[in-house]
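Work Package 3 (structural annotation) set out to generate three-dimensional models for the target panel prioritized at the project kickoff. During this period the team completed the workflow that converts sequence records into discrete structure tokens, so that structures can be stored uniformly alongside our sequence database. As a representative example, we reproduce one entry of 376 residues exactly as it appears in the project archive.
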Amino acid sequence: MTRDSPQSAESIFQNALDRSEAQRRAYVEHACGADTQLLAQVTVLLDHFDRAGTSFHEPRGAGWAAPEVEGYTVGALLGEGGMGRVFEAQQHGPLERRVALKVMLVGLAPSAVPRFQAERRALSRITHPYVAQVLDAGTTSTGEPFFTMEYAPGLPLPEYCDEHELPLSARLDVFARVCSGVQHAHEQGIFHRDLKPSNVLVMNFSGEAVPKIIDFGVAKLLDDETITLASDFIVLGTPEYMSPEQTKLIQAPVDHRSDIYSLGMLLYELLVGALPWDDSFRSRSWVEQLRIVSSSPTTPPSAHEVDPAMAARRQTDPAQLRRALSGPLDRIFLRATNHDLDRRYASVSELRNDILEFLASPPQASWRDRLRELFR
């Protein structure tokens, strides 16, 4: 790919939007000519534009009609994704329990049905304490497929850690548990492809932080061809946590190592309360976000500005936090998010083991820190 290909792709993409849907394909094929890589990039942008309004977002509140499902009382809308809506529900009968009920959206293309069913199969193959379990499945009164999962009334991982002011050691402990759940999914031949805070919820059980990984709606089953997408150029995921290869703007396979990259981004956010992009990243268009992710190498956590409030939320001070971030944690993050797949961790277990090794032997405090603690 040439250095200016992304800009050329964006220019063609913007011009295509000025044309009717019937005219777009002919225009794009003519503009790209024999450049198949450029055609692939423009296809990515157009497809993502069509899907831009269907990425998972916060609940919209009232206004959505709850489905009718036999044996359940369906309550509030919890969220909506590209293929389905998730509702809080109460199951009746022999088992009285609170569940999360996901029902497929009406009016999707026929190809969406096997993908929705594949998500259910993916989750049913995973039995792990840190992954939300599938409990039931069927169809609504109007014929839409649904399945129910464990109800996880938790907070997104970074938000939970900040609200409880967890020190670095406790944050890393929860993160290691999340890694255990992701590794188990990988061992079942499944990778998530959309690991982000809203898909890693943490609950407090008797003072213990228990994570639950949810929403395998864009998961990939390595041995299941029924969910192969119509186009290999479709972009799935959330730009802030998406691996460079998921943007499709570089030529590299999308496999379990993409989840490792996303875990690295979660780790960075746990450590410093931000992501390794500047403040303007979220305000940029998704086209620009994809380009930044695909081309900009990540920076270590220790390079992020440390302020007293951030340190206080981690029960430490800026000097101690900055010292803790330097060294092993920097190296762990940079390896997890390396753009070179061969230099990235080969498995989540390797990442988890390095975190556990750090927890077992954290950096020793300097004599200044020990003296400060003595006076305190």
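Residues 1-7, 52-63, 222-234 have pLDDT under 50 and may be disordered.
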